[in-house]
Amino acid sequence: MKTNYLLSGFAVMALGFASCKSDGEQKAEKTVDSYEKYADSVSSVAVADAKTNWAAIEAEYSQRTAEAEAALAEFKDKAAAEARIEKAKAKYTELKTQVDAEVAKTATAASTTPDRKQVLRDSYFGAGKIGEDMNFSWVNKDNILKVYNDFYNEFDANKDSYSREDFDEIKAMYEALDAHKNTVEKEGLSSRDNRKIAELKFKFAPKFKWERMGAKAEENADAKK
Which residues form a coiled coil (predicted)? Predict the structure, then answer.
């Protein structure tokens, strides 16, 4: 009988200790618990996946952090609760540092990788002469034959190394040059130069068509492997 009384007494004491926490503190305890679990979950995410979904992760982290910090007001032992929150924050910060490093690495790689289209423009017309706007204002009646001749020679020398995307860019450059030729003709392009340009175009057109078809066929074959 005494044993039963003792057990009942302990139970009452336990209930008494539990009741020492207000509803607000119990709710705050759950909020901090949830925050800790969230930090554990986030810290286990692979850096590559975190980088892809970083905006969503950061937004949820900010919201949960605000909720956890607001819950501190309900704790009697704020120091212990703050320590738990700071420990959880450290896990997030560690992941953020890794993600930031990966983003910086990607940005550096992108900045050091030359733009393939610009590489082609430079090889066909000279460094910096043609940009994305395809402005051929520097081409006139005195140099247009040389421009066409250099274009043909560049293509003929490197045609076997081009990808389908390269051929698309070469086509765009060639069409832009052709469009500008109409302007040059009005400026007094000589009949002799015009004939020579026509000869170059006659040689270029079928060769370009054939090589481009070959590149597309190779790409399709690779896609089926």
Answer: 78-105
The burial class, CB within 10 Å (0-12 / 13-18 / 19+), for 29 is middle
Residues 94 and 168 in one domain: no
Among 112, 133, 151, the domain-final residue is 112
As a whole number of Å, the end-to-end CA separation of the chain is 83
Residue 74 lies in a domain: yes
Residues 166 and 120: beta-carbon distance below 8 Å: yes
pLDDT tens, position by position, 143-185:
999 999 999 999 999 999 999 999 999 999 999 999 999 999 9
pTM of the predicted protein model? 0.52
Enclosing domain of residue 167: 116-224
Distance CA 157, CA 170 (A): 14
For residues 154 and 146, the answer to whether their CB atoms sit within 8 Å is no
